[in-house]
Structure prediction request, 1000 residues.
Amino acid sequence: MTRPFAILVVEDGTEYTDAFRNLAATPLELVRASDLEEARRVLAGRAVDAVFLDVVFDRTAPGKLAGDREELIRRFGGDRPRAERHLAENQGFYLLAELAPVLPTGIPVVLAYDFSAEPGRLAALRKTWERLVGLPDGTPVTQVLDSLLAEVRRQSGDDPAEPGGKIPKR
Amino acid sequence: MIAATAGALVLLAALGDCPEDAATLAAEADSLVAAGVPRPDTASLDRARRLYRRARVLAPSPAYSLRAADLACAAGDEEECGDLLSEAAETSPGSLSTSDRLVLARRAESRRAWRHAIVQYRALKSSAPDVSLASWADAQVRRLEIEEEAQAIPAPAAVPPPEARLALAEARRALAAGDLPKARERVGIAQRLAPGYPEAALVLAGLETREGRVPEAIRAYRETLAADPNRVEALVGLANLLWDEPDRAAKEEALSLTDRAAASRPDAPSLLRTAALRWAEWGDAPNALSRLDAYRRRVGPEEKRTTDSLRETLARRVDAALSGAVPPEEAEAPELSSPAVDEWKVAQAYVRRGDAASLAAALDHLREAERRDPTFAPAPELAGAVYEKQGDLSLAQKAYERAIAADPARAATYDRLAFLLARQPGKETEAVEAWRRAEQAGSSEAPFALAESAVREGRRGDALALYRRYLAESPGGVHTEEVTRSIARLESRQRQGRGALGAAAAAFLLAAAFLAFRRFGGRTFAEWIRANPARAREARPVVGRLRHEVVKHGGLLLADATKRLSEPDAEARGRTAALLQSRLFGGSGARGLLAESADAFERLRVLAREDGVRLNLERKDPLFSPIAGGCAILRRLERPLSRIAEDGDADPGTVSRLERAADLFGSASGAGISRALDDASSTIVRRSDLQGILEAICAEKGLDPCPALEWKGPELAVRIHRADWETIWRNLFGNALDASSREVRLGVFSELRRDAVTGAPVARIVLADDAARPLTSDMIRGRGADRGWGIVADLLRRSDGSADVSPAPAAGFAKGVVLEVPAVEPEAPA
Prediction:
């Protein structure tokens, strides 16, 4: 790989981007998007090697959250605040569903959610994106990035590891 | 009258007879049905009735009306017979015989026109030829007076849905924390979800009183009383506000309300003193004196002495008889729809009479009410009160427990049970437990009772918190004065206690005890949530945020940041320290990991405190103590990190402490915390459990044999409180059994599904039946639905679930009710 490893980080703040920028052991190109529309624009405009999705977006205006708000309001018996809270607290999952059709084939996606006690849930989500990985609680930044890099290398044929392995906790 | 005459003339014309005089017409009619003539045939009877109609048009008279009534009765036309008798009774009451009166009384009774029936029975009694008939009529009058009184009694308010109760609990928390805008917002939600919800109106009244909005507070108290006329806190609060109003009517109402409150709570003599003082101020010495004497009989010598002078003054002024008071009119609240309401109302009317025979009669009606609707809680609750009056405390306790089982959300029943237990020696622990349950159900009396219990047990801190909460929620409450005094006393003791800690030995012992208490006292999160699984719903989002914002971000940052601080590059060290500073202590719009952690711990502590539990997350809890320990270390690093951010010099002590914090965060198990929640609060859906619930419903309905539940699919664990789950199935089975007049076939089909977006597990459970009665999704959703379905929909919504109607899931069934509920992730195969 001649250019630096490029990761699209979708988050409502800058916590992950700052942590990756300051603590990564390898050179990285970090592209941050704060919501679905921005993420779509980035993906339409440039190539990335991996995507990192935060889960909770409680600093994003409800109108900018991905997901069918009206359907959720119906599901929650007309309780709009509850529906919006659900969307904010699970936004990473909704972003994955919305971005999957426009993601470059085969790139790894990290969702900042610990699936270690819910393997069935991860398996179900891999039907949406096969190379989805979770983020076990307590995993250091360097380990997240190393695993992503290994995934990208494996995809490009440099590494024979199994696809879609979750990031191991240190 | 003109219209009636015109109608009569039309009738005459239709008859085709020439107008004759009334007497001739009557005579002709009588000859057709005269005594001695064999039983007249239908044609003769009809002809005679027509002739009398004409005679009455030409010359109306009570005699013709009565005779026409006889003919109508003979022809079996009870309606006309009754109308004619009524007509005669209006114009010539004395002309009616006892049997005529009986006909009218029976007719009025069948129309539930109790007042009219009473008038007829009274007339029958006065004209009865013998004593036994008069006595029988008198008994009928007494019975109908009860019916009439019962009709005027409003049915109890509808059970508030779980969302309303939840919103009210949040309002109470906000009120206790002094967050009045939030309290107002949440109580508004509770009221919108459950109009006429007395607890919500009471909290609003407290809020308005605290903010000095008197007219609004008065309105809220009135709303409380409309739904719960005997709510003492509302009686007292409203009386206090009205007494301070300048107009006479308000003061009169305040006097009446104070008397009602005092009568409802004989165990609170301060109410009698307040009543006495108000009557005295009002200028009614006899009333003031009687209340003051009642107060003095109930209190000790010290309190008695303080009222000696007032009594003397009043005694000199007494020169008039006692006078009564009229209770204020009350607004209407939505009524609880139940087949038991009428029986309950009759029982209420009997209870108001209070004599032994009436109480026994009330119990008969309450038994019938319970038989008609076992879920109608006011019936067993009233039965409990009757048993208490009769002195049978054991039956009273059982009745209250039945009422609680029928409606676990009814705070008043818990209050009554707790008062009952508290009165019985040896049942103090049970009483405290009942108060705890009352508190969870939203009782405003419970914080006071629990505070008193805490004082007795030496838990002054808890007592202070509970007393303050009582004042916050019931500023005009029954115990306001005592609570204010108790708070002052406890605060003073606290201050004295602090002074006494000067002695070194005592300080050492206390410190040791304190350390032991901090280490071993209190409960762990898992212990608390296991004992209070209903709290899982509120705890889950707090835990979710803690996992995401603290455990995940802490783990992500700390280990790498620590390594980076040991690197030789000073600039890198400075950047890392700045990053840590920002992430730990907040910045760029984020609150910071430490604030997030403190907030989550505090929110869990507040929730547990509401259950009377002190959480020891920091030292005793294996799941939370690593996080707490890590945060405690990090909290002390603000200045060292700031220094490193400025000059890049990382001292070994700071790095070592960061390493220790990183290790602690690395050992924290967010999944473990979530598992503790799931283990405590989930319910496994088992065939045997559902069959058990079904059999219990069959037994209640007298159905034998009970259908065997057909089952297809796995047993699943659902994220819903067991009690809620059982209530849902009781309603589902009850409705399914009611929907068919023959033996019904019931099947349960379970499967685990996944949310299409989040992949979260969802249990889809279908109850299928072969009953022909149609059922649609609209019929089972929302508050507009029948009572049983409304409960099902509410409980499911509360647990993020839903209910729907589907086509038959298998051959031989007519339809299915589909429940979708969040499920617990099944364990992965080993």
